[in-house]
Amino acid sequence: MLTSVLVANRGEIARRVFATCRRMGLSTVAVFSDADAASPHVADADTAVRLPGSAPAETYLRGELLIGAALASGAGAIHPGYGFLSENAGFAKAVLDAGLVWIGPPVRAIELMGSKVEAKKLMGGAGVPVLAGLDPADVTGADLPVLIKASAGGGGRGMRVVRELAGLAGQIEAARREARSAFGDPTVFCEPYLENGRHIEVQVMADRHGTVWAVGERECSIQRRHQKVIEEAPSPLVERTAGMRERLFEAARAAVKAIGYEGAGTVEFLADERGTAGERGGFYFLECNTRIQVEHPVTECTTGLDLVRLQLQAAAGDPLPPGPPAARGHSIEARLYAEDPARDWRPHSGTVHRLEVPGVVTEFAPPAEPGAPGGPGVRLDSGVAGGSFVPVHYDPMLAKVISYAATRGEAARLLASALARAKVHGLATNRDLLVRVLRHPAFLAGDTDTAFFARHGLDALARPLASPESVELSAIAAALADAAANRRDARVDGGLPSGWRNVPAEAQLKTFGSGHGADIEVRYRFTRDGLRVEGHDRLSLVSAAPELVVLDVPGDARGEVPGEAGVVRRRFEVARYGALTCVDSPLGPVSLIQRPRFADPSAQVSAGSLLAPIPGTVTRVGAWVGDRVTAGQPIVVLEAMKMEHAIAAPAAGVLTALDVTVGQPVEVGAVLAIVDATARSAVDGTQPGEPA
Predict the structure, then answer these.
(1) CATH number of the CATH domain containing 32
(2) What is this structure's pTM?
(3) Is it the case that residue 413 has pLDDT exceeding 90?
(4) Is residue 249 part of a domain?
(5) Which of 429, 653, 660, 666 lies at a C-alpha separation of 20 to 30 Å from 449?
């Protein structure tokens, strides 16, 4: 009988498991690294055990520490969550050998699926369609393009697409490094890459009494770096393809029966809408995830099931009912990441000052009515809260925002609106990209595949929701809110407008950086006739407070609409965190950095400096001092948030300084190297542009 559960994980999935445990009357135990000491998942648990250190290899990937924490805290069972050791057969066996309950499938099932190479052979023998695997050493030009994959783990780590044979060796080595860092196993393999494949998976549930459910399918084709970004249930492709669901479910049940599976799992397929033999809805086995999936909430929202509860019940030996409930309605999940899609998906670490999503009906739980027959809703599963610090050591996912409604169109519209109106302050995120995808005509038509970003243009999809004119209006609101705060805090004549003079004087000036284009200068003055903003003669101030500014704005935001008919009243909510100002309005969210009036000379850097965009560890250098380099050439490779990130030369030139070595940790903003566009190469004495 289960009484206490330790979750050998962190963040959102730990909070998700704890929520179900509380509903079932089970006590909970969290583990935490030093970097996670203030994480919300620690406060959610009844008991917490520290794992000294911060890196995964010294904390969440050390099975002996996790088992020791369970024994020391009195936990009788371990739930592995997803990632880390969740699909590690050795860890599962050690848990059982310690006399604890393993909330997962049998060790043998994990072993059989732990190697994707061996799993494909087994599935082929069970009659499940598979794509032929390729030994990296045997790949030829005729096999291209190919996909390199890590044999252990998932989540996009250790995956690379190779289209040119010359780049194969380097990409294999990079994939091995990522796989070793993320899973402790550097084994990789290759398989044919389908340019326009669709990622379809089937949620399965099995008990030890022989009952196997195919609960429902999900489509997860919107991906970046081979990691899912938007998932939904049911799949648009399966919905419109006659007979495909039945064939998928049959293949999924055959897969789990072949390995004697128990508990919750997912059988993943790569689908080709046309099929290799012309049959519509062809699909091929990718892998079997022997754990709960990140995207499990969309299945819960369409079935009403609590999949974590079923995991716990299966581990306790309880039988499943004969069949799963029928799915109803539609659900879409968006993964909110602390990353900048427009800058090669660069992850961000730091403090999340505020995270508020409007319209949230439930957290970490399926809705009371699956498919929302009583009305649509939003579910939030978040690993952070206001004030949380996002460390560099782990995946940058902040939260999963999930909508559910009677139809797919309504679910997409609801989720896009919730994300657009959410207050996400402190870090750059992929929020704008998610909203644009959910509103894109191709997505709404169900025309999705794994090449969605490449096909529709990442530059267009990653554009800020706020237009340049809206950013300028938000900067004006930020300046006026700052002025209102100064008046509120003034000790003398606080009732007078900021910068007020009895005679005409110079305008007040505030300068903001928006991260997109040139800095924005706001010049304004308060006169007897009210507010005057340079360049916005017809803009008028309705009210200004430190947290809320209301402006009357011409309809086109440029003062070109004659008369009063075109005036629109706009509300701007303003929040300040030191130099950072976040402005939320219906025009789109805007983050601004207020520039100091006088620049600090010590903060200036030399032209051509390569700065660390994120904190991380140097894993490789691509040139040495004196080398001539080309624009875009990778100079330093950093590992951060479980991925590698190349820092490239901004222009052609000579590498005149290299201030880091392999294995060295660096902080954000650190100077890594300097490329001089005018210097002569120490190797051949030439300048950039001259023949060597």
Answers:
(1) 3.40.50.20
(2) 0.87
(3) yes
(4) no
(5) 429
